[in-house]
Amino acid sequence: MAKILLTVALLLCGLAAAQDDALLQRIWDGVQAAQQKYTSSCGTVIETRTSALLAKPLVFHGKFCADGMTRFSLEYTGSQPIRLLYNQDYLNVTTTRDGKATTEVLQVGEHVRRTQAYFSRTNSIQNLKRNFTIALREDNKVYEMKLVPRSSRFSSRINYVIVRLLKDTFLLSSLEIDGKSGVHSVFDIQATQLNPKIDEEMFKVYKPN
Questions:
Q1: DSSP annotation of 31
Q2: Per the domain annotation, does 12 fall within a domain?
Q3: Rounded CA gap, 132 and 149, in Å?
Q4: Total domain count for the chain?
Q5: Higher pLDDT, 80 or 190
Q6: Which residues contact 78 (CB under 8 A, 6 or more apart)?
Q7: Does residue 8 form part of some domain?
Q8: Is pLDDT above 80 for 118?
């Protein structure tokens, strides 16, 4: 009897793994198709940040625009606005305190392209499985993927990441990051414009001389 129960358990585990593999492939194919269909987008972001060091959660309201995989703008409003602007090789981080704006220029293009290649090659799913334990869930509206790092490359920085995608468009609706630093952030994302024509000036960055 014990051997029969063990055999049934192994068969059920194998069936569950096969179902998860099929769902992961469906999600992955949907995301790739969405990237081809929606080459640009603009919308809103609400970040809720918690930490043991914070007396209460911090909530940031912002807006974003993205053009392909090479240009991105994210701007948080409020008493101390922050703007992140990425174009090709350079990232500008502009912070404003007491009415004074300061911009930091970072050359991150190589790192961004390396990360994009990691998640866009034909073996990307294998890369994910090798580096993360993946738990999948779906309901009527969203697909959810919880990624828990296996490798030190990621586990040294994050405890887990939860990605939620809209089922009808495969667009990102929420991103949850639990960091090793003790900071937990949830980004609620809503794309309000798909394939808009974006002014070139929006992505104008400062570059080092």
A1: H
A2: no
A3: 4
A4: 1
A5: 190
A6: 60, 61
A7: no
A8: no
- Report the CATH number that the domain containing residue 45 is assigned in CATH: 2.50.20.10
Are the C-beta atoms of residues 86 and 107 closer than 8 Å to each other?
no
Beta bridge partners of 165: 143, 172
Asked, for residue 5, whether it belongs to a domain, the answer is no
Contact 78, 60 (CB under 8 A): yes
Phi, psi of 168 (to 5 degrees): -80, -25
Query: Is it the case that residue 16 has pLDDT exceeding 70?
Result: no
pLDDT digits (tens, 9 = 90+) for 157-203: 999 999 999 999 999 999 999 999 999 999 999 999 999 999 988 99
Mean pLDDT for 116-124 is 65
Within 8 A by CB and 6+ apart from 161, the residues are 146, 147, 175, 176, 177, 178
> What are the tokens at 99?
């009415």
Residue 62: domain span = 23-203
Q: Which two tokens stand for residue 171?
A: 């667009």
- pLDDT of 69 reads 83
The total number of residues written for the chain in this structure: 209
Angle, vertex CA 11, rays to CA 10 and CA 15, nearest 5: 115
Pairwise CA distance, residues 171 & 152, whole Å: 29
Contact in structure between 34 and 171 (CB atoms under 8 Å): yes
Among all chains, which residue has been given the structure tokens 């990441």? 161
Residues 118, 182: Cα–Cα separation, whole Å: 26
> What pLDDT, on the 0 to 100 scale, is given for residue 119?
61
- What residue has token string 């293009």? 109
Whole-angstrom Cα distance, residue 202 to residue 206?
12
pLDDT at 17 over 80: no
92, part of any domain = yes
